Amino acid sequence: MPYASHHSHPTDDAEPLPASLKIVSYNVQVGVDTRHYRDYLTQSWKHLLPHRERLSNLERIAHMLRDYDLVALQEVDAGSLRSGFVDMTEYLAHRGGFPYWFRQVNRNIGMLAQHSNGFLSRLEPAEIRSFRLPCGPGRGAMVTEFGAGKERLAVCSAHLALSRRARTKQLDFLSELIGDYRSVVMMGDLNAPSEALELRRFLSRTGLHEAAADQHTFPSWRPRRKIDHIFVSDDLRVLSEQVLDYALSDHLPIAVEIALPEALRQAA
């Protein structure tokens, strides 16, 4: 198979959905607090070796995440030398009070690094699936389903490639992946601005639209590009949206609150 997927055991006992959900997506850059372009050089060792500020940064991130119901994380480590063998997704889940958490290791370099995506939830998922994206190693997506009936909310979180050609193929793959769902949230570090042709094509194919603020997210110390996104289907009403002034990475987190339709919440 060109793209591996892993299915959890679905449950028919998943809790009903609330009236609204607060959602955030954050590329945490493995806990490295980058404040200037020069830090990419002077602090590059922090991407390879442990450092004492990392857990302090993660504590501050966990404190911020306490305000949210669903969290998509990019650039977390699943437990290697550089993280002090701490699984960052698990750590943020426990410190943020999330009962459900999932990791997706996309590039396993043994003891040196465990490049991963993470997902935290206050709601019990009905099912979660993990996918390796096309065009090279190290990029992945997760689809997490919520709801007790046949009509479910699908939350897709992803971290896309740097090249446009690879992103185009990855977005084509994702559009097929979520095409059968009526209620969809798609979010993550997509490495492309809103006006990028590949994103416009993806939105046209899926019927999703931009939910989060039209503010830049990268670099965090002087944001000039919006490459972190949250897209939603038309049945999900956006109650609030913002880019958070929380510069503990080279990205800023992006957040929305959405209202869920009654039909979705009461589906049996």
What descriptive keywords fit this protein?
268 residues, alpha+beta, Deoxyribonuclease I, Chain A, six-stranded mixed sheet, 6 helices, 13 strands, globular
Which range best describes the helical content: under 10%, 10-25%, 25-40%, 40-55%, 55-70% or over 70%? 10-25%
At CATH level 3, the topology is Deoxyribonuclease I, Chain A
Order of helices and strands, N to C?
EEHHEHEEEEEHEHEEEEH
Low-confidence stretches: 1-10
Name of the top-level CATH class: Alpha Beta
Helix and strand content put the structural class at alpha+beta
Shape: globular
Cα-atom radius of gyration:
17 Å
How many domains is the backbone divided into? 1
β-strand amount: 25-35%
CATH superfamily heading? Endonuclease/exonuclease/phosphatase
Mind describing the biggest β-sheet?
Answer: 7 strands, mixed
In DSSP terms (H or I, runs of 4 or more residues), the helix count works out at 6
Tell me what the CATH architecture is: 4-Layer Sandwich
- Overall mean pLDDT score? 86
Report the end-to-end length measured between terminal Cα atoms. Answer: 34 Å
Strand order of the largest sheet: 1-6-7-8-9-11-10
Number of strands: 13
